[in-house]
Amino acid sequence: MKLQDTQRRIALASWVSPSPAAELTDAATATRSSHDSQKPNLLRPLRNAIDRVQVRNPDLAHRLCKLIPSQCPFERDVKAFGKTLFHIPPMCKLNPVYDEVVALRFRALCYLADECGEDISCYC
Questions:
Q1: CA distances, 76 to each of 70, 85, 98, 118 (Å)
Q2: H or E stretch including 79?
Q3: CB neighbours of 79 closer than 8 A, spacing ≥ 6?
Q4: Engineering a disulfide at 90: which of 20, 66, 67, 75 sits with its beta carbon 3.0 to 4.6 angstroms away?
């Protein structure tokens, strides 16, 4: 066997995926999705309720943009004498409905900008 033949076989093996591995991946995905569907999610009704809120009123849109902050209010750098002692990370990601609330704020901003034609730079 020549060195060139060995190199070709190695290159082909790295580019071609065998079908049993693909079947294992599909089986793992199916197993994972069946476990996800069995686990009860107690916050699902709240998430769905937030997602169903439709912003059709400029007053509601303004109120939502004022109530929901654009950045996490808890993230801070604690400084003393001009030096950073420690950093408090954003805790908003710990909120279980964070994504839905941010999406609601985004919908309110889009409504104000697109439908009402208002300047939303004061909310950014």
A1: 15, 11, 19, 31
A2: strand 76-80
A3: 85
A4: 75
Element (DSSP H or E) covering residue 78:
strand 76-80
Q: Are residues 65 and 116 in the same domain?
A: yes
Question: What range defines the domain where residue 76 resides?
Answer: 43-124
- Domain count of the chain? 2
If asked whether residues 35 and 47 sit together in one domain, one would say no
Q: Are residues 27 and 51 in the same domain?
A: no
Tell me the pTM.
0.61
Cα 10 off chain centre by: 39
